[in-house]
Amino acid sequence: MATASLTAEYAKSGKAGCKGCGKSIDKGELRIGYVGKANFGATAWYHYDCLWADTDSLKSVDASKSAKVLVQNYDSLKGEDKKKLDKDLPKFCKEASTKASKAEPKPKSDLAAEYAPSAKSNCKGCSKPIGKSTLRVGFPGKANFGATAWYHYDCVWKESVLLAPIDTSQSLEETVDGFEKLKNEDQTKLSSDLKKNCKAAAEKEPPLPPKMAADYAKSDKSECKSCATKIAKNALRVGFTGKANFGAVAWYHVDCLKKCPQEYSKGIKADKPLEELVDGFDKLNKDDQKKVEKEVKALASPTGAPKRKSEGEESAKASPAKKGRK
Ligand SMILES: [Zn+2]
Ligand SMILES: [Zn+2]
Ligand SMILES: [Zn+2]
Fold first, then answer.
1. pLDDT for 325
2. Which of 204, 231, 265 is the last residue of a domain?
3. Most buried of 140, 216, 236, 285 (most Cβ within 10 A)?
4. What is the predicted pLDDT for the residue at 34?
């Protein structure tokens, strides 16, 4: 794996800002940076102590190498600073990569809760600012660029469309990101309000059927989300609108559709006409309409697996549907 190159020196002027804390680095002060990571290939500089806080960048540093190898200019540093680096670099790199490996496989929680670190966020419900240190509750990934859409505690319960799909049988730690960091009284409050409001929301808002689309690929640039191979130009493809990055369609080969995640197909109503379920359905040719209809209806069937008719199809290696929550 490519490792990030670091460099260290005593600041030649007081002009450079620290990428960590944003404050300037004094002339003569030891600064350390990532070569080529600032604009125009410049070095992204940090105060010595601030470097270690940026674990996102730090995890790309190969901690198995010594500071002498990793840090350009190491030899020109003062002895005491070399010693500091020898000790701190492997220690913090290891911490950063442990943190990263722990953080990555974690699926996105349905909700997040925290005390607002600043007064800069506005409530998505009432649009008024959320005061600093106020308890706020949000939906991860529901704001622009995958950010969390934050709400005042009392405002969040009005979002029944977003609350309805939340599975309240899971532990609160799993459902709510940051739950364990809340004060005890807020944990209790949140726990009971969440159960109550999600239940009410689910009764009020039946799960929305997913938006689907079908067409003939306009180029060979799209990739099937299931088999990860390119979808040929003009090939029939079926997908879920809004499930790919930036609200794009997550496309599948029509034969791969059955392998889509269950959360995508949840809510498909088999009794709905295909024209309503699948955008562009009416523009497909008759044979392809049949294919799409069969696969989409199969997703809507209670087992989640296509019902096979004796049509001499290839025997797909689809694993038996993993369902059966009691
Ligand atoms: Zn700093
Ligand atoms: Zn509000
Ligand atoms: Zn495929």
1. 44
2. 204
3. 236
4. 94
CA distance linking residue 8 with residue 29, whole number of Å: 10
CA 135 to ligand 2 center in whole angstroms: 11
Return the structure tokens found at 126.
Answer: 């009432």
Residues 196 and 126 in one domain: yes
- Residue 82, domain extent: 6-103
Q: Could you tell me if 256 and 304 are in contact, meaning their C-beta atoms sit under 8 angstroms apart?
A: no
Dig out the tokens for 224 from the structure: 């099937």
Whether 127 is in a domain gets the answer yes
Phi-psi region of 214 (alpha: psi -120 to 50; beta: other; left: phi over 0): beta
25 C-alpha to ligand 1 centroid (Å): 7
Q: Which ligand is nearest to the CA of 231?
A: 3
In a domain, 313, yes or no: no
Q: Flag whether pLDDT at 74 surpasses 90.
A: yes
Q: Give the CATH number of the domain where residue 172 resides.
A: 3.30.1740.10
151 within 8 A of 138, measured Cβ to Cβ: yes
State the DSSP code for 85: H
Q: Nearest ligand to the C-alpha of residue 24?
A: 1
Q: How far is CA 260 from CA 122, 142, 228, 254, 304, in A?
A: 35, 21, 12, 11, 10
Ligand showing the shortest atom-to-Cα distance for residue 236 = 3
CA of residue 324 to ligand 3 center, whole Å: 26
Ligand 1 centroid distance, CA of 92 (Å) = 16
Its ipTM equals: 0.39
Query: Rounded to the nearest whole angstrom, what is the distance from the C-alpha of residue 127 to the centroid of ligand 2?
Result: 6
Q: Answer yes or no: is 10 within a domain.
A: yes
Write the pLDDT tens digit of every residue in 182-210. Answer: 999 999 999 999 999 988 888 887 666 78
Calculate how far, in angstroms, residue 226's C-alpha sits from the geometric centre of ligand 3. Answer: 5
**More reliable by pLDDT, 80 or 96:** 80
In a domain, 320, yes or no: no
